Amino acid sequence: MVISKKPLHFIIAAFVACLPFLSVANPSVDSVKVVAESNVADEAHREKAGPKDIKTEINEFIAHHLQDSYDFNIFGYKNDLGEQEHVGFPLPVILIDDGLQVFSSSRFHHGEETAAVNGNYYRVHHGKIYKVDSAEADVTLDGEHHPTNAKPLDFSITKNVFMIFVVALLMFLLFRSLGKSFAKNGGISSGVGRIFEPIVLYVRDEIAIPNIGERHYKKYMSYLLTIFFFVWFLNIFGLTPFGINVTGNIAVTACLALITFLITTFTAKKSYWGHIFWMPGVPVPMKFILAPIELLGMFIKPFSLMIRLYANIVAGHIVLMSLIGLMFIFKSWLGSTLSFFLSFAISLIEILVALLQAYIFTMLSALYFGSAVEEHHHDEAHH
Amino acid sequence: MTIPRIIGAGLVVIGAGIGIGRIGGSAMDAIARQPEASGKIQTAMLIAAALIEGIGFAALFAVSEN
């Protein structure tokens, strides 16, 4: 592969040009500026006011980032009067509790206040909505710090759900225009479709056909393409400074894995079940030993899909945010520079991981579909 | 209770690291022998590495505090 040297030269020149800024940077002012656009700005400002230890603060911030939230909070800061300001927008909260309750999440005031709706009082505790008795009451905790209050059924459009909708809309627009331009120009895509057409072809030629086979691949293509671009786009969105963490939410990855499991199970042919319950080509006692193992394997496969995507994304986010947090622990130009370049390098790796995890998820799904529709062949049995 | 967990997490990472390292090394050998098959080798390498990684993460979850 030949890479043009021009961008490399540009990057090096830009890096050298920026070096003086880094070395004379005033740690207390400029290090805040560097991350101002990332959501760590929140933490930088709280650091000045709060008496809390900076390390616990960073831990709390990371834990908060990994959670889903009811409003789309991009970053927060303290204004001149010392009040906490939040930049972002509220999202609708939908609860089923004595009928349908729909209200804006701005009523929670970022989890600081109790929302009163139709005579019911709700409060956010660690990212979950609980019902409380009155406007003044707080969530009651038992001995293990678990709330004892009732939890209403929650169908809210949270940040993650909102991002799923955004990505769905984005994919619909992108691929609809790709399909249309493809049909209109007689097999030549135009515009942004030119970027995505080779990727679509890659998924078909390198993932679907080799793993599923020429005969059956077509009916799985829609799902494989959807899952590939969905996971990829969400992973990439997770790297933007808006603090989105959708594929790092185990419920989301569990649903994706569940869909793969259901498709595998319901499109499976006779030979798939034969390989699970009565493995061909092995002695009869072995068949009895293999059956429970294979049956367990049926559930372990989607489970590992779920864990792999979730853990990869969460691990990446934790590492990245901890490295940015180093800046606030070291509080010197050396530490900030180190932290900046480390987090830059990890960000590049994370871009690779975002694509790789989408690829792996699609590839393994295709592999499982392939095993489900595999043709009956007696080659091994006859020898 | 945290020290056994930390040691366990370390062991998990060592195991997964050895596994993925062996896969990567063998893939390098294979590509050096047959550069024209590098596409297929990379695909197989990624799948195998992903499977080990899945097991590694599952074990890390088992030793994590929650």
Name the descriptors.
heterodimer, A: 383 residues, mainly alpha, three-stranded antiparallel beta sheet, 8 strands, B: 66 residues, 2 helices, 88% helix, 0% strand
Quaternary structure classification? heterodimer
Q: Please write the string of helix (H) and strand (E) elements of chain A.
A: HHHHEEEEEEEEHHHHHHHH
**Largest sheet features of chain B:** none
Number of strands of chain B: 0
Strand and helix order of chain B: HH
Globally, the shape of chain B reads: elongated
Distance between the termini of chain A: 45 Å
Distance between the termini of chain B: 13 Å
Structural class of chain A: mainly alpha
Low-confidence stretches of chain B: none
Largest interface: A-B, 15 and 13 residues
Query: Largest sheet of chain A, described in full?
Result: 3 strands, antiparallel
Beta-strand share of residues of chain B = under 5%
Describe the structure.
The complex is a heterodimer of chains A (383) and B (66). With 383 residues, chain A is mainly alpha-helical. Chain A folds into two domains: 92-156, no CATH class; 160-382, no CATH class. Helix content of chain A is 61%, strand content 11%. Chain A has twelve helices and eight strands. Chain A has helices at 5-23, 27-34, 41-49, 54-66, 159-184, 193-212, 218-238, 250-267, 270-277, 284-330, 333-373, 379-382; strands spanning 71-78, 84-90, 92-96, 100-104, 115-117, 120-125, 128-132, 153-154. In chain A, the strands form three sheets. A three-stranded antiparallel sheet of chain A has the order 4-3-8, with no helix packed on it. Chain A has a three-stranded antiparallel sheet with strand order 5-6-7, with no helix packed on it. A two-stranded antiparallel ribbon of chain A has the order 1-2. In chain A, helix 5 crosses helix 7 (218-238) and helix 8 runs antiparallel to helix 10. The longest helix of chain A is centred in the last third of the chain and has 47 residues, at 284-330. The radius of gyration of chain A is 26 Å and the shape is globular. The mean pLDDT of chain B is 88. In chain B, 8% of the residues are buried. Chain B contains two helices and no strands. Chain B is mainly alpha-helical. Chain B has a domain at 18-63. Classes of the chains: A mainly alpha (383), B mainly alpha (66). The A-B interface holds A 206, 303-305, 307-308, 311-312, 315, 356, 359-360, 363-364, 367 and B 39, 43, 46-47, 50-51, 53-55, 57-58, 60-61.
